[in-house]
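Notebook entry, structure prediction.
Reason for the run: the old model in the group folder had no record of what sequence produced it. Starting over properly, with the input documented here first.
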Amino acid sequence: MKKSVWLPAVIAPVVVAGAVAAPALAGAATTPVAGNDPTAAAVIASIAESSDAQYSGKLSQSSDLGLPELPSGSGGSSLEGDASDALGLLTASHTARVYVDGADKQRIQVTEQLAEQDLVRNGDTVWTWDSEERTATRVTLPSRTDETPGSGTTTPTEVAERAIDAITPTTTVSKPVATSVAGHDAWLLTLTPKSSDTLVGTVQLAVDQQTGLPLRAAVTAAGEDDPAFQVGFTSLDYGASASRLFDFTPPSGADVTTKDLSDVDPGTGHADGSAGHDGAEHAGATVSGSGWDTVVTLPAGTADQAGLGTDAAGLLDQLTTSVAGGRAVQTSLVSVYLTDDGRVLAGAVPVAALVAAAK
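New structure, fully documented this time:
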């Protein structure tokens, strides 16, 4: 496990919120929100307008998930050291420079303790770079066919209003209130789960009043006042960045890996369009529950605890606690349950709900 896992790791809590709120963000495009009293649907619809935005800025991410701590440098095993690094990515604060030129040119740059990590996209080519490990990965993305808009007369705001209606059975969506992020006027939306069983208390999203660009997202655990996870801009400037920022050439001597996903069917995860197990990380997963109480289950054999070595087994004992039928860890926002038969269950619910879902 390399330190470059920070990118998916730090956004994991937001996936919980996004899975519920995503229907409200899809298929809408409109002009920036006008007036001093917009509806939640109008603010959500404005987000699509930012897809072609050009900007650069500094992001700050902080987490307080209540994760267990591992002694730094203890044990001497590389596995334990990597796990300590990974947990540090979730518990410590991090900053990143971000450069965006529309939908297909982005660069995210993280510098910590003289080491640098980059993710650079230019069209269908994506590079990741870790200067400490001196490793680079080049990924060729699958081609996308632009969807043809419907021929009906439904307006973007109407689409957003219908999306709001779709999520309100499980979620209370607040009236937008004015706020400011990184010197930019924004509308703040608060999503509150109606379920009393989820670990999530609220999700807040700040959206630029003029451009529709999301400026800050925060997820607060149930019963808490401070966010368990927050990411947002601390500085932001609109305008085009230098084109060279979206070009990347690995330094001499770098360990380069190439992955070609250009023939992968985005609907199945396979080059031939099949729905088999090879190459589809989500293959075999099942979903139970709904809304904020959704539980995802990966099949038997996903986590083979019996086959772990001494170091790995010891690490698992430090990270998890024994529960009926397996081991589990519960953070302030997400729980994970590893069953004795090798299944993995996860959700924004207490461990007891995962144990019940596994029966």
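Summary: DSSP finds six helices and 19 strands in the chain.
The old model has been moved to the deprecated folder.
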